[in-house]
């Protein structure tokens, strides 16, 4: 019970603020040069960043069509960060600062106040961001298997871009371990925001059930937090201890699972 209470306090603190670094601390900085899709940015002269804890529909490649909502997701991320100076933090850094009590009063992400207990979006005090060191520490960030930096993106006004995209339905919660326990805590936070977006049918969630043509059931993998159609060959390879069944995609998304890249769960954009 004590462990559950502690975990709840951490999640509530994340709701108040996902990150506040000590004044004068060095942090990774960069200017966004290009936005190739809804969960990736290319920095000017310093590498590619994969937004931690989220996933967006895939853009088409080599003649294949875009997935549903892929272009809208890319456009939204470009609106938020294109050509702008950003601050980058790892999931572990985020949770460590929250556990240390380095939190401030938040806002709803649109400049207005919001209650700290409703899991609305919250922003970092711009004063805190302005005190961060200017020397970039990109090398301190974890990388994914493709060599991209895994990070939370913060805007100069304090908004958390990863959270904002999930809350607006422009991205989904996506668990990727970066070798730290913090990745799971951040994932839980993103799932909470995703459930809000699903209930309000925002962004990609509007009419999604009518666009998905594969019928259930679906099989999830507890270890990877991915789900597959039951008929997919990869579903049969999941070990019994990691298997979890879902009647439909809504159940899988509510539980924080995301669709496997293959087996065709996510719909394609029409006319592309």
Please provide a written account of the structure.
The structure is a single chain. The strands form three sheets. The chain has a five-stranded mixed beta barrel with strand order 1-2-3-6-5. It has a four-stranded mixed sheet with strand order 10-8-9-11. The longest helix is centred in the last third of the chain and has 18 residues, at 182-199. It is globular, with a radius of gyration of 18 Å. The protein has two domains: 2-204, OB fold (Dihydrolipoamide Acetyltransferase, E2P) (Beta Barrel), CATH 2.40.50; 209-259, no CATH class. Helix 1 crosses helix 6 (182-199) and helix 3 crosses helix 6 (182-199). With 272 residues, it is α+β, with helices and mostly antiparallel strands. Residues 10-26, 103-120 and 129-136 have low confidence and may be disordered. Strand 2 and strand 3 (47-51) form a beta hairpin. The chain has eight helices and eleven strands.
């Amino acid at each position: 019970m004590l462990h559950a209470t502690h975990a709840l306090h951490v999640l509530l603190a994340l709701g108040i603020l996902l990150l506040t670094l000590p004044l004068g601390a060095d942090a990774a900085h960069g200017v966004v040069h290009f936005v190739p899709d809804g969960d990736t940015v290319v920095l000017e002269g310093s590498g590619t960043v994969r937004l931690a804890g989220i996933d967006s529909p895939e853009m088409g490649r080599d003649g294949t069509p875009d997935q549903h909502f892929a272009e809208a997701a890319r456009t939204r991320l470009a609106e938020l960060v294109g050509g702008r100076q950003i601050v980058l933090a790892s999931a572990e850094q985020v949770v460590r600062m929250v556990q240390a009590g380095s939190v401030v009063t938040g806002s709803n992400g649109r400049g207005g106040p919001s209650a700290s207990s409703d899991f609305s979006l919250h922003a970092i005090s711009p004063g805190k961001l302005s005190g961060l060191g200017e020397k970039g520490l990109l090398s301190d960030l974890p990388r994914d298997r493709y060599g991209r930096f895994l990070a939370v993106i913060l805007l100069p006004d304090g908004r958390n871009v990863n959270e904002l995209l999930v809350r607006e339905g422009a991205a989904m919660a996506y668990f990727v371990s970066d070798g730290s326990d913090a990745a799971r805590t951040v994932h839980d936070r993103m799932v909470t925001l995703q459930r809000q977006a699903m209930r309000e049918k925002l962004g990609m969630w509007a009419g999604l059930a009518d666009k998905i043509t594969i019928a259930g059931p679906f099989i999830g993998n507890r270890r990877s937090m991915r789900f597959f159609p039951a008929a997919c060959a990869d579903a049969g390879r999941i070990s019994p201890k990691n298997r979890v069944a879902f009647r439909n995609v809504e159940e899988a998304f509510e539980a924080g699972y995301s669709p496997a890249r293959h087996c065709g769960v996510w719909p394609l954009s029409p006319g592309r």
